[in-house]
């Protein structure tokens, strides 16, 4: 361990005035960046507390002149938020189950079971990574329609199992588990499903936790695709409902609009602040494999 | 891998069996693969294949599909909006690089140098990335409002106010700024991790040899993160060339088609004009261009791991 932390700039450099100016400039830029990041985040929340006239005033204020917490209770009643949250959680739970069972099983087989023609099967999965999703968005829609899955959760759940990127991540995690573990399990007479559920899955909780964050953020964020394949309030996830009833309407008061928006912003922000470590790791996985 | 021990050993009291046939030995392996194979086929390969077929058909959900040969492709090449959308998409990609691409690199280097509050700056930068898109649309519509906060600052320091969304010259730029604000944090974290893993001794040695701060950045830091730069560049190209959701949600391609991207035109052909055949043809053409990019990206990311 070195006694003094250093980066590109050393402590010795900092004693020179020229470098010092550059260093403070850099710090200042970062500070400005932090403000431009935090201002819009906070303004969502504060705008939700203002009177509608204050949100529309020019120049805009930052802190509310009066704090109107009742906006939030009004906003709560504006659309059926619990229903849409429930739908979102439904979609998340189904997608996650499919991810674990379908992709997890396949990854286990490819990683640990040495089936003949493994290479070919792997290509069958991984070649899909080369096909950008937007290029087949229309046939994908028509296909789901032909299969009669329109306006069902299955239209979201089942395709969640067709994710080559997740397959790759899980497989490389399984590859890292000591092979002797499975062999001794086999010698002791454990069946393959049991090896998966009692060895591979529990040992791979970190990767599945990371994937859960990916899957959750997709379920929470995705508004466009669900809007195409679902067509009733009973099934819309939160993001789609917000788009249809909050973003895309003109009549709604701005302060109530912001109150709703801040209510759906805070859950993911809080989840992020708690699970930061896993999320950042997941991001690196994303960066490594694209 | 050592396969001899992988057999389940039969209980001692059962009669000795012939060694199981090859398929029997692997039956679990294939059973495990089966659901994924079915799902990948049904929800990825089938739509992909259907896309190519549909591009030669006129799709009608009521009367049934009719084969029309190259008609859909002809329509694509005759439609002036296709040219507009290709230009807009290229402009969007270019703006993404000019405005968005270098920012995470600069901030990653700056943040890596901070002696204090590094963690805080990192979280602040990433925070917008967890904001749902729909919130983003509501928020930025207000920020970009003619009487919104950005214009308030602009008029305060003596500029004319700007119609960020409704001015043709500004609309695409506004979208790119908004998306950069939201997503640069994720790129920043990838760069930051790479920068922080550079051995400190290299800087030490460079400093002893008399290299200034700029020289150290140019000759040590940037070369060390070269692979990340190339990879994220390709990823950004692939992402922005498919972009349409923000353009659709904020402006629906307007004003006057200024934000009509290629992917948005695909969606418009399908869901506004109900012309799924031509939309599929547009998708096939898009694939021919983007598939190439994806292959390059794949080879790059593999090279990096080797």
Estimate the helix proportion of chain A, in percent: over 70%
Distance between the termini of chain A: 34 Å
Number of strands of chain A: 0
Q: Catalogue the unreliable spans of chain B.
A: 1-6
Question: Structural class of the helices, strands and pairings of chain B?
Answer: mainly alpha
Q: Helical region count of chain A?
A: 15
Shape-level CATH architecture of the largest domain in chain A:
Orthogonal Bundle
What class would the helix/strand composition of chain A place it in? mainly alpha
Compute the average pLDDT of chain A: 86
Write down the Rg of chain A: 25 Å
Biggest interface pair, residues each? Answer: A-B, 111 and 116 residues
**What low-confidence regions of chain A span 5 or more consecutive residues with pLDDT below 50?**
none
SSE string of chain B: HHEEHHHHHHHHHHHH
- The fourth-level CATH homologous superfamily of the largest domain in chain A is MetI-like
**Distance linking N and C termini of chain B:** 22 Å
Number of beta strands of chain B: 2
Radius of gyration of chain B over all CA atoms, rounded: 27 Å
Description:
The complex is a heterodimer of chains A (290) and B (306). Chain A is mainly α and 290 residues long. Chain A folds into 2 domains: 11-74, no CATH class; 79-248, MetI-like fold (Orthogonal Bundle). Helix content of chain A is 71%, strand content 0%. Chain A is built from 15 helices and no strands. Chain A has helices at residues 11-14, 17-47, 52-55, 70-78, 81-112, 118-126, 137-146, 154-157, 164-175, 179-187, 192-203, 205-221, 224-229, 238-247, 254-289. In chain A, helix 2 (17-47) crosses helix 15, helix 4 packs across helix 15 (254-289) and helix 10 (179-187) packs antiparallel against helix 11 (192-203). The longest helix of chain A has 36 residues, at 254-289. Chain A is globular. The two termini of chain A are 34 Å apart. Chain B is an all-alpha fold. Chain B has 2 domains: 4-54, no CATH class; 73-305, MetI-like (MetI-like fold). Chain B has a two-stranded antiparallel ribbon with strand order 1-2. In chain B, a hairpin with a 7-residue loop joins strand 1 (57-58) and strand 2 (66-67). In chain B, helix 11 (226-241) packs antiparallel against helix 14 (276-305). The longest helix of chain B has 34 residues, at 80-113. The two termini of chain B are 22 Å apart. The chains are: A mainly alpha (290), B mainly alpha (306). Chains A and B meet through helix 2, helix 5, helix 6, helix 7 and helix 10 of A and helix 2, helix 4, helix 5, helix 6 and helix 7 of B.
């Amino acid at each position: 361990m070195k006694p003094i932390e250093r980066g590109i700039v050393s402590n010795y450099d900092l004693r020179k005035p020229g470098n010092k100016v550059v260093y403070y400039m850099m710090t200042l830029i970062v500070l400005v960046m932090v403000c431009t990041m935090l201002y819009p985040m906070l303004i969502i929340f504060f705008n939700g507390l203002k009177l509608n006239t204050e949100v529309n005033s020019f120049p805009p204020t930052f802190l509310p002149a009066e704090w109107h917490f009742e906006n939030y209770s009004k906003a709560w009643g504006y659309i059926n938020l619990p229903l849409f949250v429930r739908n979102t959680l439904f979609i998340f739970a189904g997608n996650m189950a499919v991810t674990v069972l379908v992709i997890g099983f396949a990854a286990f087989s490819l990683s640990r079971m040495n089936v003949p023609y493994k290479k070919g099967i792997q290509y069958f999965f991984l070649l899909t990574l080369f096909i950008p999703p937007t290029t087949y968005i229309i046939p994908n829609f028509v296909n789901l329609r032909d299969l009669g899955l329109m306006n069902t959760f299955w239209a979201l759940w089942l395709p969640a199992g067709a994710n080559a990127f997740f397959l790759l991540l899980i497989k490389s995690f399984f590859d890292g588990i000591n092979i002797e573990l499975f062999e001794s399990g086999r010698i002791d007479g454990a069946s393959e499903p049991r090896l998966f559920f009692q060895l591979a899955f529990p040992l791979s909780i970190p990767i599945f936790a990371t994937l859960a964050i990916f899957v959750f953020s997709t379920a929470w964020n995705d508004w466009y695709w669900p809007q195409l394949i679902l067509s009733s309030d009973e099934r819309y996830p939160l993001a789609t409902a917000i788009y249809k009833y909050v973003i895309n309407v003109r009549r709604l008061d701005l302060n109530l609009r912001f109150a709703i928006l801040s209510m759906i912003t805070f859950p993911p922000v809080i989840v992020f602040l708690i699970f930061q470590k896993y999320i950042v790791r997941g991001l690196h996985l994303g960066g490594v494999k694209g | 891998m050592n396969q001899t021990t992988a057999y389940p050993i039969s209980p001692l009291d059962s009669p000795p069996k012939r060694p199981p046939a090859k398929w029997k030995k692997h039956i679990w392996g294939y059973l495990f693969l089966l659901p994924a194979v079915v799902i990948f086929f049904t929800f990825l390969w089938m739509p992909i294949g259907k896309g190519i077929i549909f591009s030669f058909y006129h799709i009608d959900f009521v009367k049934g599909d009719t084969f029309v040969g190259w008609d859909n492709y002809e329509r694509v090449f005759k439609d002036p909006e296709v040219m507009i959308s290709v230009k807009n998409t290229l402009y969007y990609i270019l703006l993404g690089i000019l405005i968005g691409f270098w920012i995470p690199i600069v901030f990653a280097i700056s943040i890596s140098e901070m002696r204090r509050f590094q963690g805080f700056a990192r979280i602040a930068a990433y925070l917008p990335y967890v904001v749902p898109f729909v919130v983003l649309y509501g928020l930025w519509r207000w920020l970009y409002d003619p009487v919104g906060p950005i214009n308030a600052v602009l008029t305060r320091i003596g500029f004319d106010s700007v119609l960020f969304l409704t001015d043709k010259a500004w609309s695409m730029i506004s979208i790119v700024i908004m998306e950069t604000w939201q997503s640069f944090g994720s790129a920043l974290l990838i760069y930051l991790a790479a920068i922080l893993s550079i051995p400190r001794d290299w800087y030490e040695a460079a400093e002893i040899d008399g290299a200034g701060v700029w020289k150290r950045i140019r000759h040590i830091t940037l070369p060390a993160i070269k692979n990340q730069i190339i990879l994220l560049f390709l990823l950004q190209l692939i992402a922005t060339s498919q972009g349409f959701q923000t353009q659709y949600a904020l402006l629906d391609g307007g004003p006057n088609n200024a934000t009509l991207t290629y992917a948005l035109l695909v969606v418009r052909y399908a869901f506004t004009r109900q012309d799924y055949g031509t939309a599929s043809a547009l998708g096939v053409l898009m694939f021919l261009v983007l598939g190439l990019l994806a292959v390059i990206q794949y080879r790059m990311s593999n090279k990096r791991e080797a």
